[in-house]
Description:
Layout lengths: L12 E13 L3 H14 L2 H14 L4 E8 L14 E9 L3 E9 L8 E12 L9 H8 L3 E9 L2 E2 L5 E2 L14 H4 L2 E8 L4 E8 L10 H8 L2 H19 L2
Antiparallel strand pairs: 1-5, 1-6, 2-3, 3-4, 4-5, 6-10, 7-8, 9-10
Amino acid sequence: xxxxxxxxxxxxxxxxxxxxxxxxxxxxxxxxxxxxxxxxxxxxxxxxxxxxxxxxxxxxxxxxxxxxxxxxxxxxxxxxxxxxxxxxxxxxxxxxxxxxxxxxxxxxxxxxxxxxxxxxxxxxxxxxxxxxxxxxxxxxxxxxxxxxxxxxxxxxxxxxxxxxxxxxxxxxxxxxxxxxxxxxxxxxxxxxxxxxxxxxxxxxxxxxxxxxxxxxxxxxxxxxxxxxxxxxxxxxxxxxxxxxxx
Length: 246
């Protein structure tokens, strides 16, 4: 019996959205200045474009165009307001894929000591390369505390005999596409709606190394004080769990 042949054109759209959170402890205006400096050094367009180039290289894709907007954050003593959106990049790859990256930064407040940087990454594909293959590259780059991944499959493509297929191949979990070394660092919660080809996974860091959350030049005065260290750790976990459980 002959197998049904598919058309060469793939009309299935695969959309993956990653919301990535990094948490930091900021206890003064002075610390906040270092926080802004850190953001400008790490979350600048040059680094984000290098990430996209790395994705392009590892997936054998060619970058056709990059549209970018970059806002350099400045500390404003009067109202402490900074731009909420740090950079916007829209990148087209030749395999019918495109990537959008947005970074959201919290504003300064004396009543708040825990600050969150959220990076949203949207990847659309109607090509042969699944956006799921980008996950590990992205997670290794951002080294995040919290991760929320949504993966949707929309549309259909027909066989030449008119029969429709709604998914490229059998798929039941995002987890299978995440490196085991990354998986081992997180607790996972999956919620999948198979009838609608909708898949979700949430990941929360298992262990906190407080050095990561306090800037190096300010860390020494905390490391000797166990009570202070425990207090900061509790604040960090409180923020992480509030975001994780929405």
